[in-house]
Each structure stands twice: as C-alpha cells, then as structure tokens.
Amino acid sequence: MGLSQVSASVLLDKSNPYQKFQFIGLINTSSNDNFVTDSGASGTAYATGYRTKNRMISVDENGNELMNIFDVAQKKKKSTGVVVTSSITNATPATFLAHNGSRKEEFAIAEQICRSNTDVLIGAGTDFFLPKNLGGKREDNLNYLDSMSSKGYTIIKDTSKINELSKHKKVFGVFSNVSLPWANKRKFSLGDLTNQAIQILSKDKDGFVLMVEGSQIDWAADKNDKNYLFGELKDFNSAIKTSLEFAERNKNTLVVVLADHDTGSLGLSNQNKDTGEIDVVWATKLHTANFVGIFSYGPSAQIFSGFQKNYEVGRKLQNLIDPLKKWK
Ligand SMILES: [Zn+2]
Fold first, then answer.
1. How many Å lie between the centroid of ligand 1 and the Cα of residue 38?
2. Count of domains observed in the chain
3. Which of 52, 54, 124, 286 is in Cβ range 3.0-4.6 Å of 176 for a Cys bridge?
4. 65 bridge partner residues
C-alpha cells in the first residue's frame, strides 16, 4: 500500500479515516539483499526489529530464529492476535506467528502457528491445516485444526458465525482454503473481523497486540486491477475505522497503520470527467522500493513521525512493550 494507494483512499472515500492520525512518517522498506523487499523480509523487520533476506520469515540470514513482537508481548502476559484476508500462513502473518527460512513452507508454518499460543487467529488457510481426505492439501495426513481444538481453540469455519468469534477466548476463524473472497464479493468487512478480535483481546487487563492486514491490496496491485484495488482499500479503511474508534474510547491504545512495501508504483493520472472516477497508470506489476507512509494515533504516536527504516519501526514497537530490550 504505497502512498498513491493511500492517496486514492483519501480521494475516493469521503469518510476515510486518515485525517484522524496525529503523526505521519515515511518508511524505507528495503530488505538486506535488495532495495525492493518481499513481504517476508519486510514483515520480519516489523515483527522482529531486524532486516533479513527476501523470502525469509523471522529468521536472520543464517536461519537463526529472531524473537518477534508476539513473543515479547506474551512474555509480558499480553494477548496477541492476527486478522488477515489471506491465508494465516501467508508471508506477513507468518512473520508474527512463525520462523522459517522460506515463506513457501506454508505446511510447516501451519504447524508452528498451532504451537504459537496466539489467542486470536482470523483469516483463511484450511488447505495448510487439513489433510487431503478432509479437503485440505496436507500430505502428512495430520489434522492441525483438531490439534488446535485440543489446545483450547474454538474453530469457526462458517462465515454466518462471524459475530460469534468474540464469544470465545481462544479462537481460529478460518473462512476459506487459501484466501478470503475479494472485499466487494463478501458480506462481511475486514472491519467486522477486526471488531471481533478487539472485543476478545481487550478483555486482557495486561493489554494486547493485534496485527491486521488488508492482504489483497498487494494482490490487486499485482494484477494492476483498479476496481479490485479500490474495493480492498475501502475494506482496509473499515479496519482502520474500527481500530481508531476503539482507541478513541479506550485512550490507552496505540494504532499504527503502515505497509510492508509498495506494489505497482501506481499513478493517479486524471479524474474522469464523465464518471468522476480516478484514472490510473501502473509502472509495474511487481513490488517497488518506493517509500511507504506510516500513520499513528494514541500514546507514543509521535515516535513514528519522520523518516524511518522498516526495522527501526519494529524496534520502536517492541520497546514500547519492553523498554529494556537491547538491539545488536
Ligand atoms: Zn507484502
């Protein structure tokens, strides 16, 4: 979600939530081996406070596990959660939930997620948790949804039961095999899912860390598909609104909105006189090294203003939970 995607969000959605942010900064999203990052390396920078090579998931260049923000939060007895519109095993959520030399190892990542002790998991991904005879794609015949049930998770697969997610303390809402439908083809928003997650996590008096991703903003840009993109941006706005509404009431919650990288180097080239819509041009279908925005609200929001590297943002986030943590 580069700055032009954010610009489109602001121009197209009159009720967009961006003007509520108190501080704005810019992020250099580069990885250790390229100006242009993938989601594994940039997610690792945010989740762990260290840069790594592209395609790696919260491990250093030598494959050593890096402690991520959920590990730090759990040590401080805080609850943790992830809400995404991709598979929960996809690169970005995986950097918060697992450690692996390759983002492609989604079956191994599923097994790690089962052991991660994360309180709230919402997204897609039954393919990676279920064996073939139960509709999944696992070849080892293991059923990790069963394992998670026995660890105390309630598994919810039926999208008509989204409002029931918040009745449970530990929950895995897994609503599709590899990804949720496009935003404009489903009856619930990312904001609805985020609201359920916040209701569960905010019961913890020790606090919580929640990572929400509008995962398909990137995929729409990968396809250079404007209508898909604008639908996903609007859906992501619903999650920002829900989060800010909670933070406004709660007064002790920091909300940070950022992107792991830009995709497409979108140009907003013209307002179409007939339709009022934005005409766009795309420079590429790939990720780019364009800097992305960071928007913050709440306690300590000011530390995210100005110019930062992605791993510095990760360090600031962890140091808010553990001010004594030192960095190599
Ligand atoms: Zn990404």
1. 6
2. 1
3. 124
4. 59
